[in-house]
Hints:
Layout: H1 7-35, H2 38-59, H3 66-69, H4 75-110, H5 116-123, H6 125-130, H7 136-142, H8 147-170, H9 175-196, H10 213-256, H11 261-283, H12 288-315, H13 317-325, H14 332-340, H15 351-356, H16 360-384, H17 388-413, H18 418-421, H19 424-448, H20 454-472, H21 482-491
Helix pairs in contact: 1-8, 1-11, 2-4, 2-5, 2-9, 2-10, 4-5, 5-9, 7-11, 8-9, 10-14, 10-16, 10-17, 11-12, 12-19, 13-14, 13-20, 14-17, 16-17, 19-20
Amino acid sequence: MIKRSSNTIQAFWVGMGTLSSFAFTIISAVILSRLLSKSEYGTYRQTLYVYHTLLVVFTLGLPRIFSYFLPRFNLNQGKDVVWSITKLLIGFGALFSFFLILFSGLISELLNNSDLKRGLVIFSPIPFFLLPTLGIEGIFASYNKTIYIAIYNIANRLFMLICIVLFVVLFEASYNYAILGWILSSFASFILAAYFKNIPFKGVIHEKANLSYKEIFSYSLPLVTASLWGIAIKAADQFYISRYFGKEVFAEFSNGFMGLPFVGMITGATSTVLMPLFSRLMHEKSDIENVINLWRNALIKSAIIIYPMVIFFLFNARPIMTILYGVSYINSAIYFQIAMLVNLFNIIVFTPLILSMGKTKFYSRLHMIFAFAVWALEYMAILIFNSPIAIAIISIIASISIVIVMLKYVSSLIDTKLIKLFPVVKLSIIACHCTCVMMIIYEAIGLVFQDLHDFLSVILNFIGYFILLVVSQRLFKLNYLSVVKVFTISRR
């Protein structure tokens, strides 16, 4: 009998892979912010905005269904499932590439940037190479081989960073050359992903899975409509800021308006590991208490790691933005602070449970309602306030509201009291403790060290914050090192 790795270890390797993706994304942004002019960099970020907005349309939710179907078939049938979905991704990748070529002019007019047309045409081969690479996380999470996710993401992102930066440094400080570097790295990703997707099935006798495309799309289409509405919600603020405030403001907004990368790493890892587990439990009609225990355990562990980081970055947003992107991007700090507020709520990983129960239609309808609301409210904010900050605030309020509604829906779905599903007292204690400690350290260092360099200020704040947090944790009956201890014990 094969001994299954603990969920914590599996989540750790997924998290390492996600961390590498976030890290290389931030590093590339830091480097390109300095190598390119703000106008060039703004156009580059607009190109990425278009790609990520349309990505959901052309993937049709397919990368997320590996975690749903693979646990329901045996290993011998798994390769057939993977290949069936990958063939669809190849076809949709080709359609995506042709779409960018045909509609590059219209998109550049909508975003009020004539330079964007050429960038999208140069960028057009990338979707064809990258779409078939999607789904790696779901495949390896389904077979408890998440270490390969970390290996793939680190190798892939490192090569991408090298290509993008080298093309800009060696040839010309232009967003077009950054995209050319990305084309080379995306081709390498295509080859690497083809190899990695075959790893779980080496030495296995393959069998026909009898998974029809009707079954695939009956699950994925409601999911993709939900994703489309989700993208519409996120795209609203970027569209309005790009169109009404210019590419320089868009560059500031793009660098700052992001959730804390570590939060996405942790919640993404948790979601990737929980999805196949929930799918298996629901398929086997297991006791709902098993699901609730998994949920609460993951939620508390996530909060113990995430809340201290969120509070630290909220207080130190301005110096961190200056360190990363330079003084010219100091205005990005306010967007960063606003965006981080949602990280106090999005630790609730309700999506795996809802998807594993097949409740994709409600998931879609809810996002549709919020999408219409966000586009209307943000347009009104432009007319009334004419401020990009007001747009950012509305976007965050919408994101938090979705989490709250979803939490209520999940509690009714599994016939459980909300307080049992969401340990509000425990999470409030963690948030209050972290805030009090950070306020003490921040004020103390500000009084003792005046006119301190931004880098030294962040380092001293971090050291003092970490020490006082650990020293005082017992007063609040907390243990911030508990997750690290679990990982260490599990490895023995």
